[in-house]
Amino acid sequence: MRRTLPTGWAAAAWALVAALVVWVVWQSAAPPRQWVVTQWLLSWEFGFVKRGLPGEVVRRLEPFRDHLTIAVAATAATVAASLALIGRVLVSLRGAFRDPGAPLFAAFFLAHFAVLPNMAADAGRFDHIGVLALVLVLGLVSRASSRGWSPGPWLIPIFVLGLLTHEAWLFLFIPSMVAAWWFASVDEGRENRRLDPWIPAAAGVVLVTLGIVTRFGGMRSMTLTEHYERLSAGIDAPVDRSSVRVLHDALAESSANTRNYILNLETLLDHLLLLVTFAPTVALLFLMLRAAGAVDASGWALRRRVIAAAPLTPLALYPIGLDYVRWCSLVVVLSLTLLAWRMRVPAVREAVLGVVARYWWLVGLTLLVTLVMGEAGVYFAFPARMQEIWAASDRAFR
User: How far is Cα 92 from Cα 98, in angstroms, rounded to an integer?
Assistant: First the structure.
């Protein structure tokens, strides 16, 4: 039997974790950036466009559609997603709060520079709607599995709404959702290789929806300048022109811009920084996933590999998007969320917490990065801290 912390020590550890999470989130928190606010202005007012669903919902709030309303809606999405992640962690640790690894796991997950601090610094991004949806989907597939019914009729509309929110859901969230759906449909106690017939149906609906969004999702009724001016006239705040441009640029143009951006020296050095700072995270994730797989009751290797690999799909966006730190951060969020969901099984929870307690120093290194460097960033690594470092260097060598 694993040892547990005395009640007083456990309470102190959890108080420290709570204080740490509040501190790092507070340090990183910022109001929604104008680029993000502008994304919430993109709607179907001038015809069907990709990413138009959230903006269409906000547009229906007339006459309350102003900068404040949009900022509140955007921030609310981030807060809801953050609370959902906190709830997922607490549910996964239910009955094990005095385990030495429990507060370490919670701190590693929630205070990680790629998770809550990064979400707080980039408030309102549509990704946070996806994170919230993922947590809800995980609860839905668990409930469906325990009661013997398929969640397909519920999940397919979620996939469609997700693609109408952002076409990149195809790589960002749907693979992890489908992996969890399939994983949960396999009985925990025996090998069961039957495929839920709703999964192929969902794949067909997703591909059709993606085809519609890709083919008809660009702005066709006006030019970029006209679109920018119409949006600017309808809101009491500046509109970010580059945010509007996403509805007017072709995929080939985006890919060319990304290629030029990725292959310059500054970006390559930034990847070196990412490699160093993410290394403890990658190592601990590998160890936790290996431990979780070792106690998988089904004994089906493919099942374990799919659920472990599904969170890597955001990296497929590297050739077409500039937000490479965002992709890397989402891999961490998805991996930890799926792992926490798998920890609802006591044997998996015990195995994972054992690894975390044993390799506490990897948790410590990760939290040290958070405290020293701040949030991970979106377009380049640790923007707040690196700007300070470059500014100090510039002053020193003048």
Answer: 13
Separation in Å, CA 316 to CA 133, 286, 327, 332: 21, 20, 9, 15
Indicate yes or no: pTM above 0.85.
yes
Read off the tokens for 193. Answer: 């290789």
Strand locations in 39-113, DSSP E?
none
Cα 224 to its chain centre, rounded Å, is 30
Average pLDDT, integer, range 71-90:
95
Distances 275 to 24, 96, 270, 279 between C-alpha atoms, Å: 22, 33, 9, 6
Handedness of CA 10, 12, 15, 19 (dihedral sign): negative
CB 73 within 8 A of CB 58: yes
pLDDT at 193 over 80: no
Helices (H), 29-66: 34-39, 53-59
Tell me how far apart the alpha carbons of residues 42 and 360 are, in angstroms, rounded to a whole number.
Answer: 45
The 8-class DSSP code of residue 173 comes to: T
**pLDDT tens profile 294-312:** 887 666 778 889 999 999 9
Which pair of tokens denotes residue 199?
A: 């999964």
* Amino acid, single-letter form, for residue 93: L
The model's pLDDT over 312-356, given as tens digits with 9 standing for 90+, comes to 999 999 888 788 999 999 999 999 999 999 999 999 999 999 999
Domain boundary assignment for the chain: 7-396
